[in-house]
Structures are given as structure tokens and as C-alpha cells.
Amino acid sequence: MKNYLLFDLDGTLTDPKEGICTCVQYALSAMGIEEPDLDKLEPFIGPPLKDSFQEFYHMSEEQAQAAVEKYRERFQDKGIFENKLYPGIPEMLRALNSKGMFLGVASSKPTVFVKKILEHFEIARYFKVIVGSELDGTRTNKDEVVAEALQQLFGDKPVERDKVYMIGDRRFDTEGARAQGVESVGVAYGYGSMEELKEARTDYIVRSVEELQKFLLRGTEEAKKLTPSQRIWQLALPFLLFLLVRNLAMNMMNMLFEFVGTSVKGWPFLFIRDEAGTLTGYTGNAATIMSAVGFVAGAISVKTIARKVLARAKEDRKLLHIKGEPVANYAFLVMVTVGAVLGLNLLLELVGITKSSAVYQEIQKDQYSAVFLLGFVCYSLVAPIAEELLFRGIIYNCLRRSMKPVAALVISAAFFGMYHGNSVQGIYAFVIGLLLAYAYEYFGSFWVPVGIHMAANALAYCLANTAIATSAAFVSWPVCILFLVLAGGGFYLLNRQKRVF
């Protein structure tokens, strides 16, 4: 959230079409040019008048200056009030002020006119600074206006450019913001088209005053208060439902396999038999099939809840992620994922935790005794989708609506760790759970943690099925530290680009 907001005037706070276009029409008539269609004069709204007369009517500098004088002749007494506020502007300004934000106006229109308009609409009181151009023709470029507004807004303090938005409807606002090193917010309800704003590489684009208000106030909303029992039930219902249905499905598959295994002979792919052909157990393939069916059943059981929670979360996050993340940030995320997965696995192996857990050893035996393709599909594709629906889709999002994001991140990761039921996977899942929730918050898409979870499981599963996993050269402290440093470096680079907590 940024708390220093600079607003353009025309096309952003007010709709000045009638006044500006009529005054341009008046000035053109004085210069011997008749233009009856006011719509054709809309491009004059926003940029400096002198530049527009030169650009659109090919006037010399002297002619353009004369046209500006004729424009002001009508504008200063009549055209200035042929104007109206966009619906919702006063309410938005009041809401921003109530949150302690510092507001300013940075317009290419002369300052004296800007102040009159704001006072006429009784919204001048909301702005700490009001900056426009000068009547003598100086400070007309938007970057100069923005620079002066920043100087006045911060006064003797250093200008904190990372806490500022410049909000306007034309490419000139974006260009002025970029020249001064601040981010821009384009309003598509004004007189600059969506195409113009996109072509100017505006950082964020909103389509209405309502959307602008939500965007600027994001992160300040009061979390919905739930009673302790409501909060517990909100988390316990999907969690217990998932576990119940998953275990029930696995038990049913176990009964089915037992019936088939005792009814028919052979099938070494699924069944272990003694010399007499009697069923004595199941292979890793059978155990993996049971797990896959359990994951699918668990996912189906919470799908309806997850769909509703995810839809609400997507709407909540929409204005946080209008601006897409650059490709470089996805590369940094890959660094974190690879480094964390391999570094943590090696760390747990090197400190001896993996050998101390009998439960973990049994799980590993089942997972890695299955044929590669079957195990890969179950543990790298099916399981991640099912678990993400529950833990990031439902649990993290529900926690996030009732508490601070950092607390939601830690608690959801703790749930994820305890769910695995043994110390080795519990520690690993807790750390990876932190990464998954962080990535979800950072990139704003549920499919990012799903993709990371799949990639992490696939990487670990493939590695464990190779000789590298037992190689002394690989399972060593230097390699472990290298991967942990890779993870830390990727996280540092991501956090330097954008802080989400």
C-alpha cells in the first residue's frame, strides 16, 4: 500500500469535456478554424494546450500561444465551471483521507484554475498540495509538475518515491510518473483509451472510480470478525472432510484389493504372495494406487468449498495484481523452489532426521517401490492438486480473511506440516508450506503454488529414483549449503522487487 497519492485533474477527478472543448472551439474560431464537432476536440483534454494546438492543427509556436490566450479568455470566467465531478470522487477522497493518506493534485492546467475548480466542487480540503502549470507557460510538462508536487508533498523530508502513485487518464501522466521514478495508475474511465494506457506501459489500470478506490485502499480493509467457534469450524470442516473421505476411499480400495487378491491368482504387479500363492501383502504399486484414489476422493469432497473460497480470494486479490509480474520474478521463484527442495532434503538427510523416523521410512518404501510412472503421476500430479485445494485454496484463504497475512501463512504451513504425520515430512512440509503461501500472495494466482508443489514433488521424486540421491559427492554439506544459498538468494531478489508482507 502506498500512502502518497498524486491525482491528475481533468479526466481523473473531473469530467471537463464541455468546458475544455468549447473553449478550444472558441480559440480555433478566433484563429479562423471552425470545428463544430466537440467530440473531435477530446484529445485536448489532459496534455498542455500549446502542445495540442501545435500537434493537432499544425500551428507555429506563436500561433499556438495566441490560441492559448484566446482559450483562457473564455475559460477563466465561463469554461472553468462547465465541468463536473465523476460520481464517487468525493466519497473516495474522504475515504483516502480517513486512512491517513497524503493527497495532492498534479495537473498540466494552470494552478490558479486548478484551485478554483477544486474549491468550486468543495474538494480542495482533501489535498495537501495543489500543483499545476504557470500562466507564463512554464512548468507545463507533466514530469515537471510531478517533480514540484513531490517536492511540496514531502517538504524537507527525502522524497520516498516507492510510496507514491501518480494517477491519471492519459499517457502524459504515465510518462511524467516514470520520469520521476514513481509508479503510475491509469484510469480508463477518463479520456485516455485502454490502448493508450497500455501502450504507455502504465503500471496499473483501473476501469472505474469504485475500482480505483478499492485499489488505493487495498490492505486497509478491516478483516471480517469471526467468533472463535466459527473460525475453528471454518477450518475444521474441510480439513476433517478431506481426511475422512480420503481415508475411507483408501480403505475401500484396500478391501477391493483384498477381495481381488484372494479371488484370483497371480497379478504380481499388485500383490505379494507366498510360495503357495496365498496373498500376504501389497506391492508399492497397489499402495500408490490406493493413495491416488484417496487424493482424488479427498479433492472431490472439498471441491465445492474450495471453488467458493477461491472465487472470493480471486476477487479480493484482483486489484493487488493488475500489473503482471515480469518474467525475471518467475525465474527467481524457480531459484527458490529448486534451492529449497534440494537444500532441505539434503539437510534432513545430513543431520540424520530421515533415519530416525520409522513412519517416514515406511512411507518412502511404498512410494519408491512403485513403478516410476505410476509413482510420478500420484505424488507429482494428483497429490499436489488435492493438497493445494485444501491447504492454500481453503485453509490459507480462510485464515487470511480473519487475521494478518503473516499469521495466516505460518498457521497454514503448520497445518500442512502436521497433516503429514511424521517429523521428517512435517518439518519439510512446514517450510515448503511457507514458500507456497508466500508465492500465492506474491503472484496472486492459485495455480502458482500448485505449480510449485508439483515441481517440488517431481524434483524430489525423480532425484530419489536415481543414483545421485545416494552419491556421497551429492549428499554433502557443501552441496546442501549451495542449494540453501540459492534459495536464499532467490528469495532476496523476489523480496527486493516487491514486499508482500
Structural commentary:
It contains 19 helices and ten strands. It has helices at residues 17-30, 49-57, 61-75, 89-98, 111-120, 142-154, 171-179, 194-199, 209-217, 228-263, 284-317, 327-350, 353-356, 358-368, 372-402, 405-419, 423-443, 447-464, 477-497, and strands at 4-7, 14-15, 84-85, 102-110, 129-133, 164-168, 183-187, 204-206, 271-273, 279-282. The strands form three sheets. The chain has a six-stranded parallel sheet, sandwiched between helices. A two-stranded antiparallel ribbon has the order 2-3. A two-stranded antiparallel ribbon has the order 9-10. Helix 1 crosses helix 3, helix 12 packs antiparallel against helix 17 and helix 12 (327-350) crosses helix 18. The relative contact order is 0.08. The model has no long low-confidence stretch (mean pLDDT 91).
Summary keywords:
single chain; 501 residues; alpha/beta; six-stranded parallel beta sheet; two-stranded antiparallel sheet; 10 strands; 8% strand; elongated
Number of H/I helices: 19
What does the main sheet amount to? 6 strands, parallel
Shape: elongated
Spatial arrangement of strands, main beta sheet: 5-4-1-6-7-8
Provide the gyration radius in Å.
31 Å
**What is the terminal separation in angstroms?**
11 Å
Number of strand elements: 10
